[in-house]
Predict the structure of Ketosynthase chain-length factor.
Amino acid sequence: MSGRVVVTGLGVAAPNGVGAADYWAAARNGTSGIGRLSRFDPSGYPARLAGEITGFDADAHLPSRLVPQTDRMTQIALVSADCALADAGVRPGELPDYDMGVVTAGASGGFEFGQGELRNLWSKGGQHVSAYQSFAWFYAVNSGQISIRNGMRGPSGVLVSDQAGGLDAVAQARRHIRGGTRLIVSGGVDASLCPWGWVAQLASGRLSTSDDPRRGYLPFDAAACGHVPGEGGALLVMEPLESARQRQAPQVYGEIAGYGATFDPKPGSGRAPALQRAIEVALEDADTEPGGIGAVFADAAALPALDRIESEAVTKVFGPRGVPVTAPKVLTGRLNSGGAPLDLATALLAVRDGVIPPTPHVTPAEEYDIDLVGSEPRRSALRAALVVARGHGGFNSAVVVRACAG
């Protein structure tokens, strides 16, 4: 098999759309899923906006025995994996167990499940703690439950990381496929919109305290004041191009063509941030010049210092206003480990349809010399796109996706 690894199935669960088709329609149209947090009363907290998935009913999609064993995060991941496999036209029972694997990223684990069991422990005693707590909280639980449900016993794992981790997981999946594995489900789903998870996210100091859903998350804007958290993400079915063609996959969304990852130097060292180098490595890996990239899907931290680093990295690689930049996550919030895989799915759909989704409500400050796609989608015959992600603490990752022709 050659080294070309492609995406043949998408499973998406986002605050503004569940399912790839509904999500993509919302992203193109600038439909937001951000509002006041409703899963618990946020009035006593400094941040009160979130991107919540509404109308998700685990009981309608999963066996009744499985629902009590799993956190909301894992329930969303299991349904997303089912959707991705169905979209790819894959029936796992028809493939050898060891030819299939699962590689996901996880930033929080099953926070909501864990919070409930800790409440039982403190208020009722240890005999009231569910045995399922032993794994339902765990970072690797999504990979484990997806592999068990679908009989996937090949190379698998989890990367415990936030925003950048979603791209790192996809890169790890690509390595396994290049090593001979026939199919990998990869990406990330996170959901920690519970008091325990909320306090953990507040500790970062990066959450927006705005109460206006239209003004809460404004990357590259002079009014930027942090990000809005969200839940959800995307899972991708990845396989070798030859295998996809041999089995006549219903569609090939595109190729995972390049990947780069770096780590920022220690603060105060005087060395430059490493995001630019991650982008350059991804382009080199894809054997693509900057002019071959039709759009950049930004990390979009919405903190001035971090936005400045990202805008400078983009302009140094592509030139001032040298490439359209978009941040559709302003419509969903940042989804931790699920955010970058959702951007990957969005980029693949953008390349397929020749449409760069908008970044509504954001007016870029003059200091950021980037061509930010505004409140309307932009038609473009793009053949490749770059997805950028940064994790808390200095992790940088970048992935190039490309239309698969020839």
Observations:
- The domain at 5-246 is CATH 3.40.47.10 (Peroxisomal Thiolase; Chain A, domain 1).
